[in-house]
Sequence to fold (440 residues):
Amino acid sequence: VEQKIIATVDVVLLTIIEDRLEVLLVKRAAEPFAGRWALPGGYVHVEEDGDALATARRVLEQKAGIVSPYLEQLCTFSGHSRDPRGWSVSIAYFALVPRGALAPQKSSVCLQAVDGLAQLPFDHNRIVDAAVARVRSKAGYSSLPAFLLPETFTLTELQQAYEQVIGTTLDKSAFRRKLGLLDFLEPVKNRSRTGKHRPAQLFRIRKDRRLALFGRTLAS
Amino acid sequence: VEQKIIATVDVVLLTIIEDRLEVLLVKRAAEPFAGRWALPGGYVHVEEDGDALATARRVLEQKAGIVSPYLEQLCTFSGHSRDPRGWSVSIAYFALVPRGALAPQKSSVCLQAVDGLAQLPFDHNRIVDAAVARVRSKAGYSSLPAFLLPETFTLTELQQAYEQVIGTTLDKSAFRRKLGLLDFLEPVKNRSRTGKHRPAQLFRIRKDRRLALFGRTLAS
DNA sequence: GGAATAGTGTCTCTCAGACACTATGAC
DNA sequence: GTCATAGTGTCTGAGAGACACTATTCC
Fold:
């Protein structure tokens, strides 16, 4: 069978910078669209990658130096018109990393707010939109936003991460009641001492319950 | 770039037969696994198919004669070990069709209950499991199971479809209250006259709200 | 009338939202 | 002590589950 199909993987890496959801973009080195900002992605390497998830991990490590973030398959975009080189398949993944985990930025990498994002090549705007929609939706009934925070964090920081992802404010009391139901957090010894007020307890994600799911939605 | 990647589409077509969820299988005509029952699937035809969704529609029409069912992308399975021919990508879709829409069966086609399904070639068992999990999950907060019923149906039949998909019984009163909230149904003139009891009102899905979503889950 | 299913009313208990309250450490 | 945020208690209304009730048709 003569197929000549291009198989690529694209990754939507999201993080929180200054209270906004931002997406990682890289400057394309090769044609097509050389020099343009686009999602990190690349060909599947048949010899090197066991499956598409491995390709996604490799792409993230090579282009952004990120090693083992939260990484989930988003969906697959395909067709004859999305890539000028021909009929292509892009298996899209999304990754969530803590704010600041991308510290030493190369000049070929940047972060942009997902709201009001510039025009991107290929169908990358659609892919970003799909990723943001997925994360927003899943934030409503899971612990996903916790992956946007550093190793340890206060409950207020966690609530802010949720609010920044889903775009609304949450009630402190109700939020903490929900968290209590699916104990995916464990307190650590230290406490956060910032400013002239009562210090907050620090928590981290329990190793045995990385991704916890709420029974019902978080906000109506 | 020398990729030599096999790009295929596989479809998990689900329907309800005798109160059970069943999946459509076809007898493979070509190697590998010729003669074995497997999911309907096929190569992406670069000249013929605009995108992978078009491939899925073509496969369903050619192998099962189904024209425009509910069809949704499931996820993508990939890797060097899932197909003996080499590194492959299978973009999986699932379809929901009314019971009995598959009436004139060819001998190369069969239906099998999804619970206790036999061993299938490739990673097709994983794909079926993923499809069933998706449908079960989505049934909890959407009108998906309505696509398993014929054009018109009674509320009792709709409730049974939900029960067969999610595998538990539902309360009649609570179920109808939920339906009232997201009016995706409209009554039709006729009523169902079967047996010696009060006839039931028939309904159909409103054209403008094909897939409606519940705010919260259907059953706890 | 009886049988059988269609369809509705109502009670209770849980829980989300709202909001006020107490706690505690920096200064 | 004050300030600022951490953290908790409580009221209320909406809604899910349970279950009993009425309605209507065939026989």
About this structure: Residues 154-156, 172-173, 176, 194-201 of chain A lie near DNA strand D (CB under 10 Å from a C1'). Residues 124-139 of chain A form the longest helix (16 residues). Chain A touches chain B through 27 residues (CB under 8 Å).
